[in-house]
Design brief:
Blueprint: H1 16-32, E1 47-48, E2 59-66, E3 72-79, H2 81-95, H3 101-109, H4 120-125, H5 128-133, H6 147-163, E4 168-173, H7 179-191, E5 198-199, E6 202-203
Parallel strand pairs: 1-6, 2-4, 4-5
Antiparallel strand pairs: 2-3
Length: 208
């Protein structure tokens, strides 16, 4: 008896819907992602297994590292737009620098900076890309002109006035930075009775 041969049907899968979903997901992630802003003073942070998320506001970050010229520099950053504005007002009044409302609005959107107060208007007027490329000398921390101390003092007062709570402090230092430089910053903090602060580190796997 002759065998009946079944006709083979060609199988095909319509991938149109899958491509649409893939492009929708790609578009979603692109639109919702936040671009990382280049740091004015990039540092290679020491590694740590401890994870503690820093707040997005009511935070001051002191960055210590070497610039392109090989000199150790100190940069300062404040998280929280209203605190930034109030701090700039206080520093302007203390050092006799008049900052306009436009200056305050731009400063509120900035990241870290490392210049004396008298040169801050030049940094504020720059575009973000130019600001990160600028050769900022760092915030003065010597005994005759300790502007970092003043930034800390004024920003802490601003946080208490606006948020009714103490400003959190974090130190972000380069892993290769010499200890005396870090200790100098810690001494400035302790002079203001700040004995609790965070050390910003990178993450690494736990040792077993």
């Amino acid at each position: 008896m002759a065998k009946i041969k079944m006709k083979k049907k060609s199988t095909s899968t319509d991938m149109t819907a899958m491509c649409d979903v893939a492009f929708l997901l790609l578009t979603f992630f692109i639109l919702t992602a936040t671009a990382k802003v280049p740091e004015a003073l990039p540092v290679d942070m020491p590694a740590s297994t401890v994870e503690h998320k820093l707040p997005d506001s009511n935070l001051a970050i002191i960055t210590i590292g070497k610039g392109a010229d090989g000199k150790t520099k100190v940069f300062f950053d404040i998280k929280g737009r209203e605190i930034r504005k109030r701090t700039l007002e206080g520093m302007g009044a203390k050092f006799g620098v008049n900052f306009s409302e436009d200056d305050k609005a731009k400063f509120a959107l900035m990241d870290d900076f490392g210049v004396p107060v008298t040169s801050l208007k030049q940094i504020i007027d720059m575009k973000a890309a130019d600001r990160t490329k600028a050769n900022q000398p760092g915030i003065p921390t010597d005994s005759l002109d300790n502007q970092l101390k003043e930034w800390l003092l004024v920003s802490r007062r601003a946080a208490i006035d606006l948020e009714d709570k103490e400003l959190e402090i974090a130190i972000k230092g380069d892993a290769k930075e010499q200890y005396p430089q870090i200790k100098k910053i810690m001494d400035i903090l302790q002079d203001q009775k700040i004995n609790t602060f965070n050390l910003v580190t990178g993450t690494r796997g736990k040792d077993f």
